[in-house]
Amino acid sequence: MTEKGEKNSFGERARTRFFGDADRLCGAFESADGTARFGYREWRRSEGGGGGRAALLLGGEVIEKAAVNFSAVRGCFSEEFASRIPGAGGDGRFFATGVSVIVHPRSPRLPTMHMNVRFLETTRWWFGGGADITPMRPRGEWGGMSSVDYFRGALRGLCETHEGAGDWPRFSDWCDRYFWLSHRGETRGAGGIFFDVMGVDEGSEVVISSWEGGFGFVCGLVDVFIGCIGEILCGGGEWSEEERAEQLRRRGRYVEFNLLHDRGTRFGLETGGDVDAILSSLPPTASWDT
C-alpha cells in the first residue's frame, strides 16, 4: 500500500477530484440563485496534517444558505476511536478526503438538499456518501411533489448505470434507516441514497470489484446532484406565513438530526476538523414551535 494520501495514490486522485467538484458545486448554486456569491475560508488542522476549504453563500434571492465544504486530512485516530473504524484497530493512521454540500432555499416550497462523498484510507480504503431531499411542506404532501420524484429518479438512474457499485433498493432503504429521528419516530425527509464502507475487502459493507468502480460511482453522484440543482432550485413563487412556519419546524428537525445522530458531524469533530465548517449544515433559522 502507498503512503496514505501520497501523490499519485488513490487518495491523491480522490482529493484532486473532490476539490474540483467543490468548485463546480459552488458555480451551480451561484447560477441557480443569480444574485449571491460564495465567500471562501481555508482552514488547517491544529494536529496531524491537512485541512480544507469552507465555502458559504448567505442571503440569496433563491438560496437563503448554502455551504460547500472540502477537506483532505491525515493523522492518527485515538485508540478508542480507531476501534470503531474499519482497518484502524492495529494502526490508527488515516487519510480522509471528501466534499459535502447543503442548501437551504428561501422558499418553503423548495426542498432542502444534501449530498456528501468521501474516501478514507487506513490499512484499508473505502468510499462512502449519499444524498437526500427534505421537503419543507406538510408531511402529507410529500408524495405529490415533483421535486421529490425527480431527485429520487435521478439517484435511481445513477445506481442502475453503475452496476456493481450502485444498488438502488438497498441504498434507498439504507437512506431511510440512516436519516431516522429515533427520538421522534419519523424520517428526516423524503429519502435518497446512503452507503458506507464501499470497498473490495470481503468485510466491506458494500463489496465492489475495483477502486475505479467505487470512484466512478461517487463521481457520478456529484454529477447527478449538480444536475438536480438547476432543475429543482428555481422560483418557489409566493408563499404563506403558514408555509414559512412549517419550513422552520422542518428545519428544527434537521438541526436535531445533525447534532444528535449524524456520523459525519461526529467524525469531523472527533478528528480535529474545523468546527464552523462542520456545523455549516445547520439552517440559518429554525423553530421548535408545536
Q: What report would you give on this structure?
A:
By secondary structure, the protein is of the alpha+beta class. It has a single domain, classed as oxygen-dependent coproporphyrinogen oxidase. It is built from eight helices and ten strands. The longest helix is centred in the N-terminal third of the chain and has 24 residues. The termini are far apart. The relative contact order is 0.16. The N terminus is likely disordered.
Shape: globular
Q: What string, H for helix and E for strand, traces the elements in order?
A: HEEEHEEEHHEEEEHHHH
Estimated radius of gyration? 18 Å
Number of domains: 1
CATH superfamily membership, which one? Coproporphyrinogen III oxidase, aerobic
Helicity range of the residues?
Answer: 25-40%
**Poorly predicted segments:** 1-8
**How many DSSP helices?**
8
Helix-strand category: alpha+beta
The fraction of residues assigned to DSSP E strands is: 25-35%
Distance from N terminus to C terminus (CA atoms, Å) equals: 54 Å
CATH class: Alpha Beta
Tell me how many strands there are. 10
